[in-house]
Design a protein that fits this description.
The chain is built from 15 helices and 16 strands. The chain is of the alpha/beta class. The longest helix is centred in the C-terminal third of the chain and has 21 residues. The structure holds 5'-deoxyadenosine.
Length: about 425
């Protein structure tokens, strides 16, 4: 499912339809009936959906080109770095410079990344869905509300039937083409159960499935891949070894995280990985290393701000307005830098950023170079219980769903094409 820039029909005659977006006019075909004045969404020069003028205006505002920051206020050094990013990898010094930008250079960094997104990925924003099927977790990560020692959390597990039904509804009724199945590290679900869930969903729906179930052996991941999963979401959380060890009780190691990433690649998974941003003691040097690791492993970026959470050992970490703003800005800078470094990578807007930045967080992320959205599809009775962090943001109803909901084959094919560039399918 994707969101794209709306175009207005300016004339219709027997052979073709002329549409306009901005100053550009073009001829398109159509699989729907249109008349002059209608607003439509098109894929590959075919109008596939009519939308209201009001919705069109809202999408245009979101995807519209932002004014570029005036050149004269930017330092020579900054301009040199941005220019260099067009043709070569940036050095450590250059990346750290960008991480430290403020004021006009900060704004310019984000708008440059947005320009790169538009140049490489056009105005397509992918919309994916996530189903959080269990909040049981055997781990005890110091930052996470699902940690097993948190006795204040009411736990739930969805049955395989519920998971399959939720997935099928998302695909059939709403048009989702990519679903993430996520849970705490919960061994209640055996390999066989997971395989069956994936197989059944794949039998019933034309959809890509990504899984996010934590550290399990290579063999489990092989079986799940054979059952039909295409991608994994698996964060390394932080590349700072000392910090990693502090945050994770014994039994977890950064080395093991890297081993997982390696075998995911070997097994042919589309890998979404990344870190948490703004962890206590984390420095820009660590963030630089996190960025390099994402560059090494990620087909899709999965990173977000750390949010102090009740009932966890890190619940008292600073969470004042200034700290929040700093994390939001750092997250946006990271999105922008990764977009400059990895022109085609998928960067979703994450819920944690929306939790800190509110509704604007989504728009701000897209305007900094993000190109995907992840909507929560967990049944509403379970949703408040998947409390990885406090005050987790979610919309009761995603009004954006109806903009971008292409139940059409084109939308699936586009995603398939995109995936095929990175993995064997
Ligand atoms: N703040 C932000 N993100 C968190 N996660 C876990 N706890 C928190 C928190 N307090 C993230 C981790 C994990 C993902 C599922 O949720 O990065 O990989």
């Amino acid at each position: 499912m994707c969101l794209t820039i709306p175009k207005q029909v300016i004339s219709v005659n027997q052979r073709d339809i002329k549409v306009r977006s901005g100053k550009k006019t073009e001829k398109v075909g159509a699989i729907i009936k249109v008349k002059k004045g209608d607003w439509v969404l098109t894929i590959n020069n075919i109008a596939i959906k009519r939308i209201s003028k009001k919705d069109a205006k809202e999408i245009i505002e979101l995807l519209e080109k932002q004014p570029r920051t005036i050149n004269s206020v930017l330092s020579k050094e900054f301009k040199k770095i941005i220019e260099a990013s067009y043709s070569r990898q940036l050095t450590k010094r250059e990346i750290v410079y960008l991480l430290n930008t403020k004021g006009n250079e900060y704004k310019a960094l984000l708008s440059e990344a947005n320009t790169v997104r538009k140049a490489y990925l056009k105005d397509f924003i992918c919309i994916h869905g996530i189903i959080e099927f269990s909040n049981y977790c055997r781990n005890d990560c110091l930052y996470c509300g699902l940690r097993c020692q948190n006795k204040n959390l009411q736990r739930y597990r969805m049955t395989p039937e519920e998971i399959i039904e939720t997935a099928q509804k998302a695909v059939d009724e709403k048009g989702y083409k990519l679903l993430v199945l996520q849970s705490g590290e919960d061994y209640y679900y055996t390999d066989e159960m997971l395989e069956n869930i994936i197989k059944k969903i794949k039998e019933k729906c034309r959809v890509f499935i990504f899984i996010s179930i934590g550290e399990r052996g290579r063999e489990t991941y092989r079986k799940i891949k054979d059952a039909g999963a295409s991608g994994v979401l698996f964060r390394f959380e932080t590349s700072n070894l000392r910090l990693f060890e502090k945050l994770h009780p014994k039994g977890k190691s950064l080395k093991k995280r890297y081993e997982h990433l390696k075998f995911f690649k070997e097994l042919g998974y589309f890998v979404a990985t990344g870190s948490m941003i703004g962890l206590p003691e984390q420095k820009n040097n660590d963030i630089y290393k996190d960025i390099k690791l994402m560059q090494k492993w990620a087909n899709m970026i999965s990173m977000g701000p750390f949010i102090p959470t009740d009932d966890t050992p890190l619940g008292d970490a600073p969470n004042d307005e200034k700290t929040k703003q700093r994390k939001i800005e750092l997250n946006l800078k990271m999105i922008a830098i990764l977009r400059l470094l990895m022109k085609n990578v998928k960067i979703p807007v994450v819920t944690a950023l929306e939790t800190l930045a509110g509704e604007e967080g989504r728009k701000r992320s897209l305007l900094a170079g993000a190109n995907a959205l992840m909507f929560n599809l967990t049944p509403s009775k379970y949703r408040p219980l998947y409390k990885i962090y406090s005050d987790k943001f979610y919309q009761k109803k995603e009004k954006w769903e109806h903009y971008g909901l292409f139940k059409f084959e084109e939308s699936y094919k586009m995603l398939e094409e995109r995936m095929r560039k990175e993995i064997k399918i």
